[in-house]
Amino acid sequence: MAGRIARAERAGTTRESILAAAERLFAEHGVFAVSNRQVSEAAGQGNNAAVGYHFGTKADLVRAIVRRHTERTERLRLRMLAEIGDSSDVRDWLACLVRPSAEHLAALGDLTWYGRFGAQVMTDPVLREIMVEESLTSPALHRVLDGLNRCLPDLPAEVRAERGDMARQLMVHMYAERERALAEGTPTPRSNWHDAATGLIDALVGLWLAPVTPCP
Amino acid sequence: MAGRIARAERAGTTRESILAAAERLFAEHGVFAVSNRQVSEAAGQGNNAAVGYHFGTKADLVRAIVRRHTERTERLRLRMLAEIGDSSDVRDWLACLVRPSAEHLAALGDLTWYGRFGAQVMTDPVLREIMVEESLTSPALHRVLDGLNRCLPDLPAEVRAERGDMARQLMVHMYAERERALAEGTPTPRSNWHDAATGLIDALVGLWLAPVTPCP
Which residues form the PsrA tetracyclin repressor-like C-terminal domain (chains A, B) (predicted)? Predict the structure, then answer.
């Protein structure tokens, strides 16, 4: 019994170190440029097949990394939702959309990798489905999008759809770019994640409420 | 002499078919997932080392693809600049920023690959430098950014910088996503590239002119 618990704990630690090593290597060198063997080595696993044993394919590994982070942003988003109730201010809903990822990255410490990892996954023709599937299962995100829709002005369906896409693209790529600048020591427009999120919320309020040019 | 010209023409055709094959494979399968050997084969080259012979490394190949397209968008942008003169309307300058890529993609035909290719390059930690270097050498783009800056309201430098980043991200990723949807036969918010650009210009006008929340 004690032996079984010790084995389970050891497996948990191994999984954690593989996830951390994979996220870092993927962010810095690219998801496809890094082999499972390199991840196993960086995670300090003597056995080069450790990734396969614990996670399966590279897609499975990517999904496990995504899931580890979405669990935490989900909790942050639920807390913010409880605070704004049924607000009718577009800005409140955009804050619930944008702040949780920024807060999560801020809480992870000075150097993070998930922003760059996420941007690669969202841009890859195959891996992006994983991100989409995982975020579709987020009840908090659905509530945010419902709330936002309720207090937006009347917009043509196509404009609503494209502005939703734009908001998502900006969240993914602006945070990834900020993370990259921090890692490389190059300048970033804002000095912390909170202010970066504020800048993004300001811009998204303008984007969502912008007048629409009719297309014939 | 005639032999030398024939050889040069043959090399030009070979280069063209390699560039076209590489762009398509990179867009569909990912820049890092595709080998130079696969590109050579898809380009109908009996010699598997054709890519290396004609272009050098994968980074050189990526740069050649980028350059082939930026030459054409540069011409489209210069023509638009001549039309708007020294306009003081933010919208005119944003149109010069956003329309040339959309017009270029529209002119390439029903199925294109450069949008998805470009988004991957811009997100990759190493390859993005190629795109940045190539666009830095565009006089037309510099004139657009100068013109835009002249007619924007007074904004804090950090806000100006981050909104510039946002505009760039949206151009790259919204067009890539539209191209992907067309290739996969999934719905897109707009029925053509011109209207997609109009939607993006509307959104960017709102984004650039949005009120700024002061950060302490």
Answer: 96-206
